[in-house]
Amino acid sequence: MKVKLINQCPVCHSDLHIVKLQCSTCGTTIENQFEFNKFLRLSEDQLYFVEVFLKSRGNFKEMERELGISYPTIRSRLEGILLTLGLKEDESKTQNISDVLEMLERGEITPDEAIKILKEE
């Protein structure tokens, strides 16, 4: 029986690492610290969304019909997938960095306070 590969610890939710590969035919085993394919980070729903996106060749109207969701929802889900894959920076994080730098520039906080705020992110 094949088991679906997971990439997060079911107990503490930390990232898991692939450390062993084995051939089911000859039994050859390779042990090392292997990387996950970044698409393995996607949830089942996100993978289905990507499948529909590819099948419709990115046509949002067709995706609306297939998924039964609105254009803004499609955009939102696509943004979430881009963030998960590391293909887009989290704008809220970028905005917060800009806010901290502006506060520092205006003298509202000290450099040490700015560093502390940014490290908490």
Structural features, described:
The structure is a single chain. This protein has 121 residues and is mainly alpha-helical. Among the domains are: 40-84; 89-121, no CATH class. It has 5 helices and 2 strands. A two-stranded antiparallel ribbon has the order 1-2. It is flat. The model has no long low-confidence stretch (mean pLDDT 85).
The helicity comes to 40-55%
Give the strand content: 5-15%
Give me the strand/helix succession.
Answer: EEHHHHH
The Rg value, from CA coordinates, equals 21 Å
* Average pLDDT over all residues: 85
User: How far is the first residue's CA from the last residue's CA?
Assistant: 42 Å
Global shape: flat
- Helix and strand content put the structural class at mainly alpha
Strand order of the largest sheet: 1-2
How many alpha or pi helices? 5
Say how many strands there are.
2
Stretches where pLDDT is under 50 for at least 5 consecutive residues are: none
Largest sheet: 2 strands, antiparallel
Summarize the structure.
The protein has 121 residues and is mainly alpha-helical. It is built from 5 helices and 2 strands.
Q: How are the SSEs placed, and which strands pair?
A:
Blueprint: E1 18-22, E2 29-34, H1 44-55, H2 60-67, H3 71-84, H4 91-105, H5 111-119
Antiparallel strand pairs: 1-2
Key features?
mainly alpha; 2 strands; two-stranded antiparallel sheet; 121 residues; 5 helices; single chain
